[in-house]
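REQUEST ID: PR-0412
SUBMITTED BY: lab tech R.K.
PRIORITY: routine
TASK: structure prediction, single protein chain
INPUT:
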Amino acid sequence: MGYGGVRMTTESLASTVTLNNGVKMPRLGLGVWKTDNASAAKSVSAAIQAGYRLIDTAKQYGNETGVGAGILEGLEKTGLNRKDLFVTTKVFNGDQGYESTLAAINGSLERLGLTYLDLYLVHWPVDGKFVDTWKALEELYYAGKVRAIGISNFDVERTQELLEYANVTPVINQMEFNPLNQEADVLAFAKLTGTVLEAWSPLGGGAALNNETIQTIAQRHGKSAAQVIIRWDWQRGVVAIPKSSHIERIKENADIFDFSLSAEEMQAINELDEAKRDLWYSDFAWHNADGHGFKDSVDTWPDSPENYAD
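STATUS: complete
OUTPUT:
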């Protein structure tokens, strides 16, 4: 199966997509948004032991420390090496800008207990900042501190603006993507540029999981609604990072390789698109249309530090 001219391997949890810079990235991974440090550590360790190799976090999530602990435990219990994993984190909105981004990566690496990142993303296109942030990511990429760089939550307009100044094309655009919000324009533009779309919130919450069409398809295959949605992502060529704090659910989410969706089933899910984002750019306090000033804070879950500054 191809994605925008990108080559893909055979189907298993170890399957990868070859990004536009030649780096291989797992096609299915674990997300940890809205997870505290203790839960993140357990989830990440369990996921690695279950065969996951892609782990996605962000400074804004307030759980990089927990993710790092989970990575360490997972590697110890499986006998794997750091190079066997693909770890993503993101530039915090409050750190965006050229010099501040160059400095910010050190805090993330320290919290994660790592010496390099596999993928570093611009978390949101902060007004007046994201081009300079991208320039810093390019420098980190050239210096070998990150293996690949990409963007997150960039619509077509802002992606086009970034590309006017970029020397490196983003390998990934991570977007809210699920059956009810399929980002048709972003996906089409990503294919044109050789950028892979990665889905955050791929399951779409209760509205998608309880959708009658998806439930009917799930019953037909003897699978859960979540498994059908993740399989749909897979067949669409979208990298997915479903979040779960439950070990059995983490395992279940990866059990999608003993069935496939027919063309008719794929089309039926495609037709569920409402093109309605639950969370978008204009919702954030730091968004300012004239490009002057922004504010933001790290998410604080029960065990997250109140002051998460580098």
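NOTES: The radius of gyration is 18 Å.
REVIEWED BY: pending
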